[in-house]
Specification:
By secondary structure, the chain is of the alpha/beta class. The chain has 8 helices and 10 strands. Helix 1 packs across helix 8 and helix 2 packs parallel to helix 6. The structure holds adenine. The site of adenine has 14 residues, from strand 5, strand 9, strand 10 and helix 7. Adenine (ADE) binds next to strand 5, strand 9, strand 10 and helix 7.
């Protein structure tokens, strides 16, 4: 059975699309699902587009139509933990929908399934953490042009595991960032897809992991930093960590 691989935007998926040995392309709901061999593994690679609905549709199709039995999400995020910098990598051990609220006293809880924090698969998460470390230690400096690393001040990025928060908002506001930091347990970063993919995977009982490289710090400079980072570095981190992870699976 194949591994599903999702990225949200063209800049994140570009090098994976270049490297996959495509056996079949299928367009469903405007998304191009590429079935093929990637670094020796059978995969279905797809760009979800941005946001929770987009990734929920994509994840459901990967499971229902293509029968994948594991899913990896790779892409960028905004750092919320103040100790994280652009270029650091976060692996989600769990994820939460920060814009989900039906009851002020019980923030983020999703009624009827009664879950606030979706757990990632422990083994995939451990393997993803090792994979990102190995990419950074052994390959990153030969893979990403030095002028790009210098531009983003990237030397030896850290890899951490923790909570990722997702919502249908690009966060570029220090106050919202501080709110997330105070409300979400062990939060590391914020993005727009992970926890929605996690909910679909939870409901179908499909193991998954989420790998995010910090493109910005979800602050006043976030939009500029994000634009520059996706142009110059996101695709390398996404490819490098996914390549390394697939070799362990
Ligand atoms: N993805 C990358 N940076 C982000 C941010 N600041 N907010 C939401 N999603 C992001």
């Amino acid at each position: 059975m194949a591994v599903g691989i999702i990225c949200a935007i063209p800049e994140e998926i570009a090098l994976l699309e270049q490297d996959i040995r495509s056996e079949q392309d299928t367009v469903i709901a405007g998304r191009r699902f590429i079935q093929g061999i990637l670094y020796g593994k059978e995969v279905v690679l797809v760009m979800s587009r941005i946001g929770k609905v987009a990734v929920a549709v994509t994840t459901t199709l990967l499971i229902e139509h293509f029968g994948v039995n594991q899913i990896i999400f790779g892409g960028t995020a905004g750092a919320v933990d103040p100790s994280l910098k652009v270029g650091d990598v976060v692996i989600a051990d769990r994820s939460v929908q920060h814009d989900f609220s039906v009851d002020e006293t019980d923030t983020f809880r999703i009624p009827l399934i009664d879950i606030s924090y979706f757990q990632s698969d422990p083994l995939l998460t451990l393997q993803a953490d090792q994979a990102a470390r190995e990419y950074i230690q052994n390959e990153m400096h030969g893979d990403i042009p030095q002028e790009h690393l210098t531009k983003f001040g990237i030397q030896e990025p850290r890899v951490v595991t923790g909570t990722i928060a997702s919502g249908d908002q690009f966060i570029c506001d220090p106050q919202k960032n501080a709110w997330l930091y105070s409300k979400v347990d062990n939060i590391k970063c914020v993005e727009m897809e992970g926890a929605a993919m996690a909910q679909v995977c939870y409901e179908y009982q499909i193991p998954f992991t989420i790998i995010r490289v910090m493109s910005d710090c979800a602050d006043n400079e976030a939009s500029f930093s994000f634009d520059e980072f996706v142009k110059g570095a996101a695709q390398y981190f996404t490819r490098g960590s996914i390549r390394s992870l697939l070799s362990k699976m």
